[in-house]
Amino acid sequence: MRVVPIITAALVLVVLYLFVMERDTLLSWVGVETAQTDESAGAPSGAAAAATVDGPEDEGPQLFGVVVERFEERDLESAIVLRGRTEASRSVEVRAQTSGLVLSTPRARGSLVEAGDVLCELDPGTRAAALSEAEARLAGAQATLTEAEINRETATRLAEGGFRAQNSTASADAAVEGARAALEAAQASVEVAQAELDRLTITAPFAGVLEVDSAETGSLMQSGGLCATIYQLDPILLVGFAAETQINRLEPGAMAGAELSNGQRVQGRVTFLARAADTATRTFRVEVTVPNPDLALRDGMSATLLVGASATRGHLVPGSALTIDDEGVLGLRLVDETNHTFFQPVTVLRDAPQGFWVTGLPEVADVIVVGQEYVTDGIEVQVTRRGDGAADTRSGE
């Protein structure tokens, strides 16, 4: 049997007994004095008792501290910033209405055209002969009608004198009607042949710029074939897209400015506001018409638009102060004159570098900007006003 473990265990027990049961005696051996206690009450005496009486327990429950900032209602900047692009005011693909070989010399892309300028001219082929044939039939129909009218007049006079039967007049009337129908058909044939000849000359519908070369000489153009593409760049459109909260503040005729991606700045007026939102982005199309006499503005350039809007009043609050109540309503948590909290729903008008412009608050609002997520409605809080540096501990008296 080993003796060392037994001796070690006995020593440990002795040390533990001295530390637990004879602690005061042990401390007196090493020269440490213990605090005097009141043997009758077992409570601390002197300064310790005084500290207990005067301690924070007599001050009541501590209030939760929040940081509050005061915001006053003011006019919102009367302009709305939109992102968009430039766009041609008019564009069209000029296509052929008939088929034929191209006889005209093609115009180069980028060239300017005026309304009525010839873009493509097609080979007439046998269309001129078809027109001549239709005109000849028209002349024959006119002669037939004249002869039928003469015969009817003769038959009428003879019937009135008793030299001819009365039914001969009806036959003459029928002949006249048939001749008149043939004449109208011949006139329609002439118009069709003439229209077919007119389709051989394809002209520009409005003044603009050729974006694509017109058809090449000698190429065979089918009906519906592309002759040229024209863009009208004077005036040009600035197209932006407004959010649902912005569109009601815009009006047709409002002044607007824009800065293009190349740094150029232009001005114009709002000429169109969409009534239906884009299904993908839920934004509304806004068009601003800008003069472009030198065609310096090109189609498809990125632009930042600043559009004049109707004045609106609101509060500019930091985005971190916004919160959501238990029902998912966006708002702010405020304190009243008695430092009790309450929730106020708000509507965001637009964003800004300093936060968000909102409406729905009182004219002067004390908004909790720190700690709003940790309090509920109707509780009293200890208020520290931003910028004051001291706590407002009023109890509402």
From TrEMBL:
Compositional bias (Low complexity): 40-51
Pfam families found in the cross-reference section: Beta-barrel_RND_2, BSH_RND
Keywords: Coiled coil
Matching InterPro entries: Beta-barrel_RND_2 (IPR058792), MdtA-like_BSH (IPR058625), RND_pump_MFP (IPR006143)
CC annotations in GO: efflux pump complex
Coiled coil: 176-203
GO molecular function term, any single one: efflux transmembrane transporter activity
All residue ranges annotated as the CusB-like beta-barrel domain in the record: 243-308
Annotated stretches, region: Disordered: 38-58
Domain Multidrug resistance protein MdtA-like barrel-sandwich hybrid: 90-224
Homology family: Belongs to the membrane fusion protein (MFP) (TC 8.A.1) family.
NCBIfam families: RND_mfp (TIGR01730)
Name recorded for this polypeptide: Efflux RND transporter periplasmic adaptor subunit
Organism: Pararhodobacter marinus
